[in-house]
Design a protein that fits this description.
globular; single chain; 203 residues; ten-stranded mixed beta sheet; alpha+beta; disordered N terminus; Alpha-D-Glucose-1,6-Bisphosphate, Chain A, domain 4
């Protein structure tokens, strides 16, 4: 039997203007300058892509993304985050803890970050891939095994920037539908909105 998520995606694909793009994403919604796209993966995992534009420079976005200790101020449900020792400015490990409502156990993500700026185009790319065994486990948290994310920040001709975040995660595994939706879809949308506000407020 198809899951509810699969049925939703199939239904959206039948709506005019909701056809899949070349990567298999279906446009789900547009709100407050944020576009949301979803793609069903194997085992009913879901990849979410959100895009927006901001009145800021690419360098300002990169600065905010590198300030892991401040993630709780703008990343949805983030209770704690830190860059782990070692690495370089363009390749390092970080840890993030996700606050969950009772009675669910808080989640924990350990991931590797690799990032660069294309010298020809000025596009900033940041790749994040889970490394669940790279940091000692804590009994207080459920370690997320699958977390893949890509940030792309493109400079615009008007001096602003286009932000695109693509996320695939198993953080919603085993959760009720409303909470899974909040983490899988609502989380990236709320996060990119908050990031936009944060970078636009930075001088």
């Amino acid at each position: 039997m198809r899951s509810l998520l699969t049925v939703i995606i199939l239904a959206l694909a039948q709506v005019p203007g909701m056809a899949q793009d070349a990567d298999g994403f279906v446009h789900k919604a547009s709100e407050d300058g944020v576009d949301v796209y979803v793609r069903i993966e194997d085992n009913d995992d879901m990849t979410v892509r959100v895009t927006t534009t901001a009145r800021t420079k690419v360098s300002a976005v990169r600065e905010v993304l590198d300030e892991a200790e401040h993630y709780p101020a703008w990343v949805h449900r983030c209770a704690e985050a830190q860059r782990l020792p070692g690495g370089t400015d363009n390749a390092y490990l970080y840890l993030s803890r996700v606050d969950m409502p009772f009675p669910f156990k808080d989640r924990e993500v350990v991931a590797a970050i690799s990032q660069s700026v294309d010298p020809a185009t000025g596009v900033f790319r940041r790749l994040i891939s889970s490394k669940p065994d790279a940091y000692p486990l804590s009994k207080k948290y459920k370690r997320v095994e699958l977390y893949e994310s890509t940030w792309e920040v493109h400079p615009l001709s008007d001096g602003g920037a286009k932000l695109t975040c693509t996320v695939r995660t198993a953080a919603g595994s085993g959760l009720p539908g409303w909470l899974r939706e909040d983490i899988m879809t609502g989380g990236p949308v709320k996060t990119i909105r908050s990031l936009r506000e944060r970078v636009e407020a930075r001088k």
